[in-house]
């Protein structure tokens, strides 16, 4: 399942940030784990490259906050990121429908 998650990681991040205003990396990994009852566990090695790519594409803003003696990076959607979230969720939904039709055609909704 981890390989399937890799292709949807950016969509997952955009969706979570749209629901939570701003989050830091570890918080994102824990939220995904919680929402999927442990079935999907995102590693830092997968998450941070995805966050950096989204930031470089102008979809995320980063806010660095000093927490005690540690610096914590919070990620937040830009206006462009909010629009892209809608596009990526539509794409994912269409992909899931297509896969359902392929795997189990007699139960397809269309």
Describe this structure in words.
The longest helix is centred in the last third of the chain and has 25 residues, at 79-103. It is globular and about 60 Å long. Helix 1 packs across helix 4. The protein has helices at residues 2-20, 25-35, 44-56, 79-103, and strands at residues 22-24, 60-67, 70-77. A hairpin with a 2-residue loop joins strand 2 (60-67) and strand 3 (70-77). The model has no long low-confidence stretch (mean pLDDT 89). The protein is α+β, with helices and mostly antiparallel strands and 110 residues long. It has one domain (2-107): Arc Repressor Mutant, subunit A.
Shape: globular
Assigned CATH architecture? Orthogonal Bundle
Return the CATH topology: Arc Repressor Mutant, subunit A
Measured between the Cα atoms of the first and last residue, the distance is 26 Å
Provide mean pLDDT, rounded: 89
Helix share of residues? 55-70%
Structural class: alpha+beta
Q: What integer value in Å does the Rg equal? A: 16 Å
Protein name: PadR family transcriptional regulator
Organism: Namhaeicola litoreus
Domain Transcription regulator PadR N-terminal: 13-84
Pfam families: PadR
């Amino acid at each position: 399942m981890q390989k399937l998650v890799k292709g949807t990681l950016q969509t997952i991040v955009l969706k979570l940030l749209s629901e939570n205003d701003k989050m830091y990396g570890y918080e994102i990994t824990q939220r995904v784990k919680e929402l999927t009852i442990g079935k999907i566990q995102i590693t830092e090695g997968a998450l941070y490259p995805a966050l950096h790519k989204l930031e470089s594409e102008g979809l995320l803003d980063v806010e660095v906050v000093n927490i005690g003696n540690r610096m914590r990076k919070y990620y937040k959607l830009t206006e462009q990121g909010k629009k892209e979230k809608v596009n990526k969720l539509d794409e994912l939904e269409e992909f899931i429908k297509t896969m359902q039709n392929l795997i189990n055609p007699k139960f397809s909704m269309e």
